[in-house]
Structures are given as structure tokens and as C-alpha cells.
Amino acid sequence: MTDSSQPAGTQPAGAMQETPHGANAVLTMSTISFTVMFAVWLMFGILGKPIQEEFGLTDSELSWISAVAILNGSMWRLPAGILTDRFGGRRVMLVIMVFSAVASLAVSFAQNYAMILVLAFLVGFAGNSFTSGTAWNSAWFPKHRQGFALGLFGAGNVGASATKFIGPVLIASTAGATYFGVIPGGWRIIPVIYTVVLLVLVVLMVFVTPRQDRMAGQGRPLGEMMAPLREVRVWRFSLYYVVVFGAYVALSAWLPKYYMDNFGVSLGTAGLLTATFIFPASLLRPLGGWISDAWGARRAMYLTFALMLVASGVLMMPNGHIVINHADGSATEHLAYEIGLVPFVLLVFLMACAMGIGKAAVYKHIPEYFPQNVGAVGGLVGMLGGLGGFILPPLFAYTKQWSGFPTSTFFVLFVLTAISMAWMHLTVVRMLHAESPELADHFERPPGDTGAVTSETQV
């Protein structure tokens, strides 16, 4: 296994490929479809409360509904990416959309907890559309536009907010009603609406996107497509994506409860405050793609990790003060610290901005290093990043239980970010040493040497 950081298949400086006709249609339809499927994937964040009340579920039972949806939306990303490279993103996206529409419709008619759990798992399949859409757009856009294109497509993450805005109003206004004699109101109408929207998008995608698709892996053996997964670099990118995407999914579900428990706000207010995290983490993804195109993906990742370390480093500090017991038996308090709601929201917003940039930067790496294997590599990176969103919430809960500090949530993110940044930096240092070993002895001058720096020693 190797972890060199020189992109494969790089083109000579100044070489610019033209964007194929039909690429913008692919980007537009894939982005809109992914936005809706992301909303479908995470819709149980809002539907969970009325579902819990109707079926009398415990908090633990309720948590598994969202968990199984997130799990199924992550575990098939690798095969979805490979199938996209071999058969085209148009076909794979259409299959995912139709399957998700049917599963979403079935949710509306669930009659018990077991049915809800199974159907939530099936609905979660919509989350795998990310890898398919990424590989699809990579095949249609030239290298100098891939960062922005993938960033714009990835901004479909904003779909996580859709149900938070439309759900409560529709649930309240349709409760107890029945439409066309078969469609129930209340929380059950939301999955029906998503079904209709998905089927409309299926029809539009059939007629709008080019029938003659582009397939990076057409005719290539499966073993050849899977070969890059043996490289350490791929697993390093996966860890980055756990930090910027897995943590995003986890916090999207975790923050409403955190706001209510620690700041005493209502559910509605907590949802709106959580939206100030979701929107920048999603909508800044195109900016992250542009930065990656202009400055390089590695610089974008340094910026991402630095901002996340600053924000999580402050957020992880528990409220409190130092108590000093004096010899005379008295006690004094010093260095009182407490973070209020407004500073907390601003720091979470800063972290969200960093995640939005970082999500695009991670996927900018992939077509640069693996131009013929975007589906397989992007699939693995997306799968592990999504699984991070499945694993992190329980980790947040266990660290809080162990430490007693609600802010331990951000301690977990701080440690995870620090490990990722350290691994990336060590890789860069090794790469520079391997490329320019003659500079190893020229970073420090011998004692007493005050001479001017020559061109040979400049770095």
C-alpha cells in the first residue's frame, strides 16, 4: 500500500478540455434530484416525534429509525459508484430515485414499529445517490471545472433542512384529514409528497439528460476498478470525509436536542438554530469547489481543519470555574467561563462553513488522483463518511455519559480533526522530502553562519 500525494494522470499546464454538450443538464438534474433524495434520507429527524407519539415508542426505539436510514444510505455507496462508472450515472440515479419513491410511499401506510423500522431502512437507500451523482458529474466535466461542479452538486446536502421547514406546518395543517380517500394526513402526508416529487424528477431526468451517457469505467474489469482501494491515500481521504461529512450528518441530528437541553429553547427554535448550521455546511460547498480549483484541494483542507480546530476547541470547554481551597479553610472562585447562546451559534456556524469547504475539497482530490476510478474511490470515501454519521451520535452520547460534560461532543470532533490534520501534514512533509531530498539539510544554517540565503537554500 502506498500513500504518495502526486496526482495521477495530470495534464500539462495550460491544457484545458472543453465541457461536453449536455454536462450542464446532467449537473442541474443530478443536483435537484440529490437535494430531494437527501431530504427523503433524513426526513425522520422531523417525522420522528409524531411517529413516537402515535406508536408509543421509547427514545431508544425512536433513535433506531433514523439510525437505520443513515446506515442504509451509506453502506451501498461503493457499489453505487462502481455501477455508475460501468453503466452510467443516468441509469443508476433513475433506479435509486424510483426505489426511493416506492419506499417513501410505503412509509405512509406503516401500521406498527416493525414496519416503520424496515421501511426507514429501505428509504435510506436514497442516501447512496451522492456517490452516483459524484461519479456521474466527474465523467461529464473536465478537470478544471470538476471542483466547482462537484461542489455545486454536493450542495444538495441542504435537503436536510427541507423537512424541518415544510414538515411541521404540513403535519399540523393536515392532521386527521384523508385525501382522495386513501392518502392520510398528518406526518404520513410528507412521504407521499416526496414520492410525487421524486417521480416527477424521474420523468424530467429521462427527457432532459443526454441518452448517450459517459462512463469512466465502461468495459473495464472489476478488479482493475477496485485496485486503487488498496492505497492508503484512499483511506486517508475517507477519514477526512468522516470529519467534514460524517460529523455534519451527526450534528444535524444531534444539535436540536443539544440546544433544547443546554439552552432551554423550544423545539421550533432549536430547529431554526440547527438550520444555521445546515445551510452554510451545504451551500458553501460550491465555494469550496471553487477554492479547490483555484488554490488546490490540499490548501482548502488546511483551511478547513484549522477553522474546525478553533471552533471545536472553544466549544469543547465546559462551563464552570476553578475553585481554590485555602489553608484557612476558605474557598475562592476564579476564571469563570460560560459560553452563551449567541457565541455558541456563531462558533457552530464557523464550523459549518469549514465543513462546507472541506466536503468539496475532499472530493476534488478524487478525480485528480483517480480519474478513471472516481466511482469506486468516491464510493468508499462516501460510504465511510456516511458511516461516520451513523457512529458519531452514539459516541457523543457515551462520552457525555463518561465525562458528565455536554461539551464532550465537541471534544470528540476536536480530536478527530486533529488526527486528520496531523496525518495530512505528515504526508505532505514526507512528499516534499521525497521530491526534494537535497533541501533536507538547508532549512537551518550552521551556528555563526549569517550569510545571505542563496537560491539553493530558499524554500
From TrEMBL:
Transmembrane residue ranges: 25-47, 62-80, 92-110, 116-136, 148-167, 187-208, 234-255, 267-288, 300-319, 339-362, 374-398, 410-429
Membrane topology: Multi-pass membrane protein
InterPro entries: MFS, MFS_dom, MFS_trans_sf, NO3_transporter
Single GO MF descriptor: nitrate transmembrane transporter activity
Listed GO CC annotations: plasma membrane
Family: Belongs to the major facilitator superfamily. Nitrate/nitrite porter (TC 2.A.1.8) family.
Name used for this protein in its record: NNP family nitrate/nitrite transporter-like MFS transporter
Biological processes annotated in GO: nitrate assimilation
Intracellular or extracellular location(s): Cell membrane
Major facilitator superfamily (MFS) profile domain ranges (all copies): 25-432
Keywords: Membrane, Nitrate assimilation, Transmembrane, Transmembrane helix
Region span, Disordered: 440-459
Keyword Protein biosynthesis on entry: no
Domain of life: Bacteria
Transmembrane helix among keywords: yes
Organism encoding this protein: Propioniferax innocua
